[in-house]
Every structure is written in structure tokens, then in C-alpha cells.
């Protein structure tokens, strides 16, 4: 377990509250104690309890579905003692899920019980609006509140203009421009990051540097970025949970190369809220926003109110989300069929056994 994990204020420093305490009552009656998972690797996890940090096994709660398996941020019930096995996970309030990097039908849980998602994008590198939109959709879909954090403001000539451009990608989202080098925007950022906070973004965006600035210490590993493209190395190699000095909890994540969406309809509607709003005024309810007469979306593009790139990005992410969701649904159906077959076989074998004994 990382040496910086401590328990000032007990589990309340990690987000424990009255609602969780009530939900935990049956586990407490069974002699278990609450713990929050700080990091997961190779079938075991680092967790924190009122008594301090511990290392625990996850075999009892691991499932075939990676989304339901233990992840950083989960609240768990464990027996007291050294090297325990997690006995149960508490229901999640929120969870960040992306399509698995291998493009299989499974999703992948990145962090659970998150209150605020800080989508981190560097102003020092070429703009990638599609990636920002993906991450914001991921954040909205999780059930947490997204915040768009623009880092390395000291590296650009006109950070205000860059921030204005970024704000158009994030309707309804607070946009904070920061510089860990000069301290710009850090107080404003600390004011909007509440509860359990996750930093999401690509390698080189400055997540760990930003995290260290919020923590007030060099806790998270950082690394240099390549001068030619601004890309960084994966100095954060696993998700890790650390208490913030002024309250709340920070989860730093490895840089995300693949940001696939799955079952993220609500998140996409939030990110592209202006297109959803315009579409309500289209003549036809099933308008594809291509060549139909009376299309309010195409009219907005023609007038300059809406950027054609935004519509193209929306369509692309919708197609990707529909494909991944259909794959996930098909996998779930296959697993249901397998379970039904297994139940039928068990019933058949049981009947045969009863017949032989009679």
C-alpha cells in the first residue's frame, strides 16, 4: 500500500456518510467492517478501513462482467484481520464505464462512487475536440458532475480564447483554465471539485501535476511529454485514491488512449444538448438531419449557429455507442441462454437421480 495513505478523520475523510452507514448495517451485524478500495491490481486490492490500510483479496466478489468487479472507489465489507477477502460490495452511487480497450463486448469500470469528474485537456497541445466530447459523455453517463479543466495555460499566448473554444464543446459544464506552474485557476478549481473527484484525460494532459497541486504535495508520479506532439508516458499506471487536504478524495487515472462509449445515450444527449434542442424543431420527428425539408439542425449549420463538425462528431459517437451497446446486449443474452441451459440440465439430472432412487 502506498505510504501516503493515512486516515485523518477516519473513513469520513474518504467519503463515508450516514447513508452509507445505514446501507452497511446488515454487514456490520455479520461482523464485517467497512472499507474503501483505493487501488486494484492482479486480483487483490489496497483498501482503507477505520483501523488503517490493508491488502485484501477480491476473489469472492469478482465476476465475469468487469463492470461489476471491484474497482477503485468501491465501498466494501471485509472481515477484520490481516489479508482478508472482500465479502461484499455496497451498491454504487455512480460508476464511470468505458467500452473495453480490446473492443470486446464487455465494458470496463474505471472508478466508482464518484461525485465530480474533472476532464483534463492540455492547452499546450493541438486541440482534439472529439476526445473532449467523448470524455464528457463518459463523465455525464456516470452520474457524476463533469468539470472541464484546461491545463498549462502558461504555455499558450491567448488562454482566454482557447477556453472560449473549449466551452463550446461543453454546454452546461464549468470550464476552468489552470496552470500548475503559476497557480492560475487552482483556487477556482478547488471550489468546484467536491466529494470524490476523478481526473480523466490522455497522457501528457497534466493530470498528475494538477493532482499534486490540489494535494499540496508531490504524491502522484509525473513525467515529461514529448516536444513534437505533447504526448506523455503513462506515469500513472493504475487508478489510485488519495484524500484531499481540504476535504474530498482524489482518484488519479492512467492516461486513456482508448475512450470507447457503451450504453451512453444520456451522456451524449448532455454533451450535444444544443443539437438535441434544435432537433425538437425539425419538421419530422425521425429527421436524420441530412437533406430533409424543415430540418432545424441543418438550418442552424447554414446560419453559422451550429458547427458542422459538432454534428459529424455527434453522429460518429452515436454510431459507436449503438454498436458497443448492441454487442453488450448480445453478450448478456448469450449468457442468459447459457444460464437457462445450465438450469435445465441441472433439473434434468436431479429428476434422473430421483427416478433412480425411487
Automatic annotation (TrEMBL):
Every CP-type G domain range: 104-259
Quaternary structure and partners: Monomer. Associates with 30S ribosomal subunit, binds 16S rRNA.
Name of protein: Small ribosomal subunit biogenesis GTPase RsgA
Superkingdom as given in the UniProt entry: Bacteria
NCBIfam families reported for this sequence: ribosome small subunit-dependent GTPase A (TIGR00157)
Chief localization: cytoplasm
Matches recorded under PROSITE patterns: ENGC_GTPASE (PS50936), G_CP (PS51721)
Cofactor note: Binds 1 zinc ion per subunit.
UniProt cross-references to SUPFAM superfamilies, sorted A to Z: P-loop containing nucleoside triphosphate hydrolases (SSF52540)
Essential cofactor(s): Zn(2+)
EngC GTPase domain boundaries: 112-257
Organism whose genome encodes this protein: Nonomuraea recticatena
Chain's role: One of several proteins that assist in the late maturation steps of the functional core of the 30S ribosomal subunit. Helps release RbfA from mature subunits. May play a role in the assembly of ribosomal proteins into the subunit. Circularly permuted GTPase that catalyzes slow GTP hydrolysis, GTPase activity is stimulated by the 30S ribosomal subunit.
Keywords: Cytoplasm, GTP-binding, Hydrolase, Metal-binding, Nucleotide-binding, Ribosome biogenesis, RNA-binding, rRNA-binding, Zinc
Enzyme class label: hydrolase
Binding sites annotated in the UniProt record for Zn(2+): 282, 287, 289, 295
